Amino acid sequence: MAEQLTGLADDRALLGRTSTAERVSDILRSRIADGYFPPGTRLSEDGIGGALGVSRNTLREAFRLLTHERLLVHELNRGVFVRVLTIEDVEDIYRTRSLVECAVVRGLGEPPYALDGLSAAVAEGRQAAAGNDWKAVGTANIHFHRELVALAGSERTDELMRSVFAELRLAFHIVDDPHALHEPYLGRNQELLRSLEGGDRRGAERLLETYLTDSLERVVEVYRRRVGEDSAP
Tell me, what's the pLDDT at 14? Predict the structure, then answer.
């Protein structure tokens, strides 16, 4: 927890002079999405409040907002914890992703498209893979899909999917072999990017549908195995 709080203190400048619960929740959501707080982590009010320099009331309101987004859970007499997802949660996350991401690609209109963000995320993933940092590859993958959603140019869609992608990171934490999970999608992200660079949004949508279906199957398979292991005597 000490390492996580040190990193969190670096975000204190983002709050500015008008610290609000919404801004605190934005920071914590981003940290969860980037993997700093794994599922089941107890979030210390004193530690996080001190790192960010905010009041306990402000932090509790931020916790309440993130609990509403299903990222945190409050346990009576125990505190606030990062939520541990169920298989049903994972299936619903992917259902939402498929509905939104495929609709974004389908509605892109005529090329060319603004693909700098997608290209940067592909490069980020390859650099992380070259360093054998598969957790960072997973983060780059989330960045790729966040940039894909951003192509819609909709603040409401971006806001909706920020929470969904943060939940997705919680699912990735359960995976015991991130290398095996994330490596195939380095190439698939590149393939999607090339389709969009070529203006083939229909082809990109087909690739994305298959991509998300395959990813769901892989993650659920791991979840079923891990749940079985955890429940074994």
Answer: 57
